[in-house]
Design goal:
The chain is an alpha/beta fold and 673 residues long. 38% of the residues lie in helices and 14% in strands. It contains 25 helices and 18 strands. One of its GO terms (molecular function) is helicase activity.
Amino acid sequence: MYSKDELSDKNTSELQDIATNLDIDVQDNTNNEELVYAILDRQAEVEGNKNPLGGTKRRRTRIVKKDTDKVYTVNGSEGENFDVKKNKVAATNTEPTKVVEPETTTSNDETLSPEELLKAIPKHRGRKSKKELELLSAIEARKQQMPTDEQEDAVPSEISKTNTDEPLPYVADSTDIEDTNKDDTDTNNINTNDVIPEEAFHGEPHPENQLPDTSLIEQLQAKINAHNSSNEEESEMPHDMYWDEDPADGTDFITVVDLPIEDQGVVPTYDMFDNPTNNNMPQDQAGAYQQQEPAEPLFDFTDLITANGVLEVMPDGYGFLRSSDYNYLSSPDDVYVSTQQIKCYGLKTGDVVECHVRPPHDGEKYFPLTSIDLINGREPMEVRDRIAFEHLTPLFPDEKFNLCGDKATTNLSTRIVDIFSPIGKGQRALIVAQPKTGKTILMKDIANAIAANHPEAYLMMLLIDERPEEVTDMARTVNAEVIASTFDEPAERHVKIAGIVLEKAKRMVECGHDVVIFLDSITRLARAYNTVSPASGKVLTGGVDANALQKPKRFFGAARNIEGGGSLTIIATALIDTGSKMDEVIFEEFKGTGNMELQLDRSLSNKRIFPAVNLVASSTRRDDLLQDKTTLDRMWILRKYIADMNPIEAMNTIHDSMSKTRDNEEFLLSMNS
């Protein structure tokens, strides 16, 4: 016999040889697949001839259904615990039972017939109980003793279906019952003694089997009577009408339906129904379960923790208070502000909020805001009806920042700036410098002078694209808030920090504060805006996009003196002569927007003359609003005197005269001599 896979692996010559051996007509044009199927068909025909279909059949066996055991049943005050009963019956069956004659029946059988006992049992749903089955078998055995002509009508229904008169099936004796009770866990296995071959129902009847065997029937009746008597003795009720280990008085609500035992091996040895019910619980014990001690309330930290920060409103309407320790970027110290609170208090991006917060609950990430104490240093009711920054009236600076009042911060740099290029509140100042001319040191001196002489002004030092060591030095030596984004940060971070600082300054100006922003440098800020701005298609000289300078212009143009109080002063540095065409374009764009210009000269710094200020090119627009008439007249004469000098000659002349005087008033008085 060849399989299809084996034939497929063979070549054409081998297949032809096999076909020839099987008497298959092979043609020349026959391919391998046709040969394989022809061989398989011929093999099937040969095997069919060897084993025809009329052979011996496998005999089927009839499986006799076994009644399932019951666990527990209750009918009023009558009931049976079949777990306990079965254990007792199994113990009694360990001894071999003797065949009892039919005459030795109990007194109950003599007085009452099985039919009467069967009628005495109350009717119930479900399967018949074991006692009912035994009474039915006794009735059937009694019917078998009837005459032969009536026996055919009294045959059990199960045997009558076969329409044959074969002898009764084999009945197991007491020893077989004992063997089946030894291993209760094998209830799912089929006992071969209970299997009746199907051929027994189809065999030819013998003449000697037509009449029932009297001795066999008597032995069967004796066994049934003995089994009934033993069960009645075991189930005899005590005098108090309750059996042992009764769960209650018959008033429980256990269902009458009998439950089969799935596995005797896992039946628990402890039965909850064996314990008597006792509802008499002590009063003190019962009250202990009902009374529960109230849990201690957790300490409420609401309105105990204070926080502050600059508000950043998200596009979805809610916002966060950003911390200055993280340069107003997202951080773990952020405070969540809901949309309702923002609308209720009229908050905007850049508002400085002092508030109370509570600890976050489960599932919350941030500290939520609970109440607001101050907004930009004002009461919330005052800030609610403020005028927007864009609608405030700008004026020329008319109040000068005094840089020479405090002796600790007064030096030659601040004296020269204070007299030649005065800075007023709301000034838009531009420090134009070449690299390595001392612009950072000059800006630091101006910042410390304003902080010492004008404590009402709020100073912010914004460092964009600067060196990290300069940021650290500025934070340690300048009495101002330092917000920095070093050159190793992306341009998006430069732009975001600059935007938050500008919004904060605008909100403070709206509330009437004087704010000063020192920007170093505006050229690097314009480069960052040019990097992040989308391409418009119009590119200026040096690679500057046409729309990229609009936002840095808006930043620098926000400096103004507000009518009625409040001012925003921006002092920014601009780089020139760096060799980059972009820096030249940026400076030209901002040159006309400022109203104060302070130029530094590289030739002065090379000669180590500081401050390296080009006195001839440095000036302030409308300085007549910042200085008195005497100072203006004397500065008029001084400027005419140094107008024909070069930067080095002019600086040497002023430097020598100023170093001999203590302050600017004395310097101006010395001009008369």
